[in-house]
Amino acid sequence: MVPSFARLAQCLATDTQIVRRLFQLVRGLYIAANGAVVATANVDVIANNIANTNTNGFKRTFLQVESIEKAQIYRFQTENGIAPGSHTPGQAGVAYVGPLGFGSRIYDTPDTPTVFEQGPTQTTNNPFDFSLEGKGFFTVRNTAGQLRYTRDGGFVRDNTGRLTTANGDAVVGQNGNPIQIPDTGAMLVDRSGNITVAGRFVDQIQTVEFRDTRFLRSEGSNRFIDGGAGPIKATGSNVLQGTLEKSNANVVRSMVDLIAAERWFDANEKMIQSEDEATNLAISGVGHASR
Q1: Is 31 a domain residue?
Q2: What is the pLDDT of residue 255?
Q3: What is the three-class DSSP state of 125?
């Protein structure tokens, strides 16, 4: 006969050892579940890096993980009177047992952190391809008129003569306006970004650097938003014409990280199954003891 909830509650209240074990089992279940969630998110991040290994100017990202706040465990008990048979009231005692962990979780940030280290440079000999040597960024303006920043220098000249990115964002010149490229004459760009066509100065590609790249937020399509990083005129970066910066994501390293993340998930999944089986056994034991 299945015991009533009242009987089950009474059994749990009287058998403190069973209660303690149940709490341990449930805690282990949630710790494993937290680990599986983190591992899944890490797989997604690594897979995105692998998918963009051939994307010009792509900067790999990584997942930040932190420990969940630990609970501090104390033992509260009342000591008996000192003298045998004494009616002296017991003395309350408190002993520190230690910390109790609850697993890991994803660090709460608006975006996964980006690694802005330099990627390898590929020579294309295309006059509209550019790469940056240093920590600078190209400044572009999207169709909504908003400034964005990118390391992808695969530019084109559109049908109106503007220098744009592949998706149509206008490359910004020295005065903040779109750069207009004449349709005749050879275009040359020096290391400072100065553009000359047929020997005549046209404009300068606006490049900026940031005091703190941690405040740059990825918008997708290799574009970054300034979230308080503070753009300043680039002084330590050089523009290289006829080259492209490739992705800084390493395929071999990403594959190794992906395998490790999958094994991490598998380990937590097995732990969840074990904890679930142990919980079922504990509940069955409580029901059997209450008959």
Answers
A1: no
A2: 93
A3: coil
pLDDT at position 227: 86
């008996």: which residue's tokens?
80
Amino acid at 40: T
Is 60 exceeded by the pLDDT of residue 120? yes
- pTM for the model stands at 0.74
Asked if pLDDT for residue 244 goes beyond 90, the answer is yes
Tokens of 151: 């390391």
Q: How many CB atoms lie within 10 A of CB 240?
A: 18
Q: How many domains in the chain?
A: 2
Residue 166 CA to its chain's centroid (Å): 27
The answer on 232 and 132 residing in a single domain is yes
State the pLDDT confidence band at 247, using cuts at 50, 70 and 90: very high
Q: Which residues contact 244 (CB under 8 A, 6 or more apart)?
A: 56, 57, 121, 122, 124, 129, 130, 131, 153, 154
User: Is residue 132, in this structure, part of any structural domain at all?
Assistant: yes
Alpha carbons 34 and 45: distance in angstroms, whole number: 17
What are the backbone dihedrals phi and psi of residue 222, each rounded to the nearest 5 degrees, phi first? Answer: 65, 25
On whether both 148 and 96 belong to a single domain, the answer is no
| Residue 147 bridge partners (DSSP) | 141
**Which amino acid is located at 219 in the chain?**
E
- CA 49 to CA 223: how far, in whole Å? 15
**Shared-domain flag, residues 80 and 183:** no
Burial of 244 (0-12, 13-18, 19+ CB in 10 A): buried
The span from the CA of 242 to the CA of 107, in Å, is 40
Question: Cβ distance 289 to 15 under 8 Å?
Answer: yes
Q: Kindly tell me if the per-residue pLDDT of 3 is higher than 50.
A: no
Q: Which residues face 203 on adjacent strands?
A: 195
CB 119 within 8 Å of CB 131? no
The answer to whether the beta carbons of residues 179 and 173 sit under 8 Å apart is yes
- Considering the domain architecture, whether residues 208 and 239 belong to the same structural domain is answered as yes
